[in-house]
Amino acid sequence: MSLIYHKIASADDPYFAKMHRLMGEVFPPEEVLAYELWREPLLDPTIHVYVAILDDEVVGATEYRYRPEFQAAMTDFTIVGRPGLGIGRFLLVQREDHLRRLEAESGTTSLGMFAEIYDPALAGPPEGRVSPMHPAVRREVLSHLGFKKLDIDYVHPSWDHEGKAVRGLDFCFRPTDASRETLPASLASGFLRWYYSALPNKPQEWHDMMSRLEAREAVDLLPI
């Protein structure tokens, strides 16, 4: 049976519960929005949540969005639930096709895509068989895709709404123009202020980071 790309548009979709359970197995608690708090975001037509289904089970998932006002996309997460099935490639191809349609519909040209990427040095060495979701594996895959990290000391508010400062990730960007070596600081800061407007509780570390970012004209894009 081939993989099915299925849109999650409601928390009542039976596949949403399976996706949320998979998220809890992959990400730390502070990175996973509580089940009931998903209801409103899933109704937002600009937030695209899709799962890969195989034999009626959710074996992968991705969430992303395209913001014409920034001419930038954001991949919120990608989950590969099982190795050896081509799930990562399947999700990438489906997502990229959809993003190109969204770009065309908005009449804009994308500058690239943002992503938060875990630092594998903080995850510890893998034990036994290396999972496709281990930060070292994911980071290398994203490097191959062209992502680079912004030269900032990155911190973000926790998604558990407790306002904690979450570290251990880099804020990254995959430029459409692969030769691009810098990014306007105003693009990065504007996007982050919009992206985290959904979280009312933000740590002082986040505000300090944003102040430093907004004081700059450009940010270097570094290899990951």
Explain the layout of strands and helices.
Elements: E1 4-7, H1 14-26, H2 39-43, E2 48-54, E3 57-67, E4 72-80, H3 87-106, E5 112-118, H4 135-144, E6 148-150, E7 156-157, E8 165-166, E9 169-175, E10 182-184, H5 185-195, H6 204-214, E11 218-222
Parallel strand pairs: 4-5
Antiparallel strand pairs: 1-2, 2-3, 3-4, 5-9, 6-9, 6-11, 7-8, 10-11
Description of the structure:
This protein is of the alpha+beta class. The chain folds into two domains: 1-110, Aminopeptidase; 114-224, no CATH class. Helix content is 31%, strand content 27%. The protein contains six helices and eleven strands. It has a nine-stranded mixed β-sheet with strand order 1-2-3-4-5-9-6-11-10, with helices on both faces. A hairpin with a 7-residue loop joins strand 7 and strand 8 (165-166). The longest helix is centred in the middle third of the chain and has 20 residues, at 87-106. The chain is globular, with a radius of gyration of 17 Å. The chain starts with a strand and ends with a strand. The mean pLDDT is 93.
